Amino acid sequence: MAPTLRLSSSSQLAVKCEARHTSEMYRLPMIGTLRATEQKDLPALARFLIRVYKFGSSDYHADTELLKWKYLRPRPGWRGGRSYFLEKEGQIVAHCGVCPAIFQLPNGNAVDSLTLMDWAADYSSPGAGIVLFRKLMEMASTSYIIGGVPAARQIHRRIGFQPVGEAQTYAGWLRPLREFRIRRRTLRSALRVLHGLAHPLRNRSRVTGAWDFTPVDQFDDSLLPILNRAERPWTFCKRTLADLNYLLECPHLKMRGFLLRRHGNVVGYFIIAIAEWEARLLDLMVDSDCTNDWNLACAIVTRAAKLDPDICRIRILATLPLLRQALVRNGYWCQYKEPIVIHDPSRSLDRAFPVSFQLFDNDSGY
């Protein structure tokens, strides 16, 4: 059975509600029961997300198979559930999902962290979403958030999150004319195709015969020497084989895993997700701090994506300067920027940033 608990009296306090209620204070003598999501709860959770987010009934974000993978598929190394909700009188009134992370600092220290996903609250229970959010933040010593709608960003500041940098999302055009033909036409369609024709992806980093890539259905022990390296010149989110293979099992997208090789030796990996016409680079690791190696790795990613005739464009989130520079070198352009905020009451991450975040490190890639 998943754990069930009553909110402590310290959690039943006056909080400011979402941005539309910021001028009022609410005393919450009884919020409800907090418990981890179980498989039997998934249909009710899907209906709740559809209602609060105003999804269409067939929207994949509320698909129970996707929710099962995101929140119930085992992830070794994480204690506790990865989806919790507040229930009152048998109805869900707030929900938060948990995406765990471990920051590996340049000095070798590890700091546990998490980000919260599918954060939703019923307006009939003002303040419930914030109480749940703050409660789940206690599951790790630090928390981070990438992006978020403006109203949520206001709430993040009020509960102690501090800005630490920006995440840049890059895009690269492969087949702009095909995208124009297959997507629903809007006023922006012509602008997109003109931009795509004017800014096609070109491999400006010339890949030598020493570099190649190998598709894999599952990652194996050949990656362990790279994954187990505790020290790099930058802070990164630690990966395990279980993490990478978990990602490959995502039921919503076509997932493609690749090993990066140089002179036949494994020097990294990357994972591409394909959603109809768009590819998303969910994760890329190169076992090097050499600028040219990252340039060549991004050229390999482009080459691998081009092999799929359905892909029109690639989307990549990057915060590591090495990756940003390599993407620009290979013809990618910055599509938009989002703030990164962190809650770090013990100041264990004071010298950790910039952190290498990628799409794998929240749910914006799937």
Beginning-to-end CA distance, first to last residue: 28 Å
In CATH, the topology of the largest domain is named: Aminopeptidase
Quickly name the level 1 CATH class of the largest domain: Alpha Beta
- Kindly state the number of beta strands: 17
Whole-number mean pLDDT: 88
The proportion of strand residues reads: 25-35%
Query: Are there runs of 5+ residues with pLDDT below 50, and where?
Result: 1-29
**Helix content range:** 25-40%
Provide a count of the helices: 10
- In N-to-C order, the SSE pattern is EEEEHHEEEHEHEHHEHEHEEEHEHEE
Overall geometric form: globular
CATH architecture of the largest domain: 3-Layer(aba) Sandwich
Q: What is the H level of CATH, i.e. the homologous superfamily of the largest domain? A: Gcn5-related N-acetyltransferase (GNAT)
The helix/strand class is: alpha+beta
Q: What's the alpha carbon Rg, rounded to whole Å?
A: 21 Å
The domain tally reads 2
Main pleated-sheet profile: 15 strands, mixed
Please tag this protein with its features:
Aminopeptidase; alpha+beta; 366 residues; two-stranded antiparallel sheet; globular
Give a quick rundown of the structure:
This protein is of the alpha+beta class. It has 10 helices and 17 strands.
General description of the model:
This protein is of the alpha+beta class and 366 residues long. The strands form 2 sheets. It has a 15-stranded mixed sheet that branches. A hairpin with a 2-residue loop joins strand 5 and strand 6.
Topology (SSEs and partners):
Elements: E1 4-6, E2 15-16, E3 25-26, E4 33-36, H1 42-53, H2 64-71, E5 83-88, E6 91-104, E7 110-121, H3 128-137, E8 142-146, H4 150-158, E9 162-173, H5 176-182, H6 189-198, E10 211-216, H7 224-227, E11 235-237, H8 241-248, E12 254-262, E13 265-275, E14 278-286, H9 291-306, E15 313-318, H10 321-329, E16 333-343, E17 355-356
Parallel strand pairs: 7-8, 11-17, 14-15
Antiparallel strand pairs: 1-4, 2-3, 4-5, 5-6, 6-7, 6-11, 8-16, 9-15, 9-16, 10-12, 12-13, 13-14
